[in-house]
Amino acid sequence: MTSPLEQKKLKIAGPHVVTANRTGDGAVIWRTANKLWSTNLSDAAVVRNSDDARALWAEAIADDVGAVGSYVAPVQVDAAGIIAPGNLRERIRVTGTTIELPVAV
Amino acid sequence: MYAYDELDRTLVRERVEEFRDQVRRRLSGELTEDEFKSLRLMNGVYLQLHAYMLRIAIPYGTLASDQMRMLAHVARKYDRGYGHFTTRQNIQYHWIKLEQLPDAMADLAKVGVHGIQTSGNCIRNITTDQWAGVAPGEIEDPRVWAELFRQYATLHPEFSFLPRKFKIAVIASDNDRAALRIHDIGVRIHRNSSGEAGFEVMVGGGLGRSPFLAKTIKPFVSRRDILSYIEAILRVYNQYGRRDNIYKARIKILVHELGIEKFAAEVEDEWQKIKDGPLALDEIVIADIRSRFTYPAYEKQIDNPPELKAAGSDARFEAWRRNSTSHHKVPGYAIVTISLKETGKTPGDATAEQMDVIADLADKYSFGEIRVGHEQNLVLPSVAKRDLPALWRALDAANLATPNVNLISDIIACPGLDYCSLANARSIPIAQEISRRFANLETANLIGRLHINISGCINACGHHHVGHIGILGVEKNGEEFYQITIGGKANQDAALGTLIGPAVPYAQVADLVEDIVEAYLSLRLRPDELFIDTVKRLGVEPFKERVYATH
Lengths: 105, 551
What we know:
By secondary structure, chain A is of the alpha+beta class. Chain A contains 2 helices and 5 strands; from the N terminus they run βββαββα. Chain B has 4 domains: 104 residues, Sulfite Reductase Hemoprotein, domain 2 (Alpha-Beta Complex); 150 residues, Sulfite Reductase Hemoprotein, domain 1 (2-Layer Sandwich); 92 residues, Sulfite Reductase Hemoprotein, domain 2 (Alpha-Beta Complex), CATH 3.90.480; 137 residues, Sulfite Reductase Hemoprotein, domain 1, CATH 3.30.413. In chain B, strands 16, 17, 18, 19, 20 and 21 form a 6-stranded mixed β-sheet that branches. A 5-stranded antiparallel β-sheet of chain B has the order 1-2-5-4-13. Chain B has a 5-stranded antiparallel β-sheet with strand order 3-14-15-12-11.
């Protein structure tokens, strides 16, 4: 999974969302259509071209107090509109580690 | 143990309060993330996939029992009840909240523990042999020198913004348990032909995308001159190291591009200018640092006590004793390695409960002292042999007595894509699957000493280049693939592994490791020819032919 830290030129194909970590506690968050952040991927605004992605990302970057490390991430959207992560990295961010943690949460 | 003085304690307390204010300003928006990032990194705070991560330095891998209890407390109160011991003798918490970090750091500061210089382009935690001070045949306790280097490097204004991070390790034994040659500077204490103790200095080691083993730049530097010589190296690096390209910024690249002779000449020039200055060490300074280390009051013990003989009939105890205890410099005592490699679990992880158990056992059986090794295991450095059966029972009850130290399931693994924002592929589940496949102790002992090291990206935190079997996760078209090397080693005969063939997908890695092991068992000359020696004798080809015929 190419790290989003290496995301330089933004050129997307297919559905994408903007994601980040919440500044205060580091929780994984997604940018919503109403210019807020949500901890549910299902609330994320989905963009499908580079211009829209750049605009959504710029808006996320502007919220420097609320979020940290924002980037554009691929998703899959099925016929019912259900959003799913587009690669393993994002799946891990959504569902947690693929391993059992030493202490159950 | 080393007793910190008031200066150290004040420095750590003041840093916590400074960071508390920085966090407050970050959360209120007074500081942007761009402004805050370098400040948090200077305190060991990273942003990972799921949360912030706090990296805590454990200087030269030595922990007191009260420090271990505090690590447990922080895991329980501020994280998710566990911590991860790393290949740099540090501990990391992977679920920490920025809002709570100042309080967590304040708690840690109560026992002199902190994250200062665990990130950033500065001199990082000084590492050493986890058996320092107790290993038979050691010239002296290398932690005295590690502590000297720590004091020198802490907040050093000239070396706080080096071209890139800088790692120093020091040992005083012929057996390198600290992986000296993969450090920016490796220092080995030895005696010259006159019997004088001094330092072999190695420079330019490092892994990552351009792996190099450190080269000996000076075979013998006197005690008086070691600090000025290290400073000369740092100055040459600081002046000539590349700052235009992060991938070429480590000292290993400078040494490689200049050549060791030219680099050494530059260092020599610089050293001649400073060697007789304030860094020339007075024996009083060394003696003062040494005096701050307290050592156990060893009792006269018999080397084969009745308690040990009585427990010898318990096969499980005997398996553990043979595997996890080592000779101590004092008769009647043993060095005990606590495996953090329970079958199917994450290498290097310990729960808060386990940390508390280890702290209690350290108090009861090992003079209150614990060590962290770069192989991600812990050590109780001084246990009376008569206490081994009782210690084993307590460790076993806490799932801390897996007798697999130095065996195939004693795997080094970085956090990988399950946690790390830099990773391309997962490391931990690969390690867990391999450990399950080789859980049978009889099989593992039949195979013998074999180190598997796994990294989830080219940054090589899992030291894959120097694993007997090295596994590197890469990405290919959005899928996890793994390159396999064999023949690497991190000891006094350090070597970089050789690629054995094309990368294989995630699902095939454990099969491939099994095939490599099968090939080894059929190729070795004798049962006591270690895997690494068979690879050295035969090279990669016979393994490649056998393994890739089936993949």
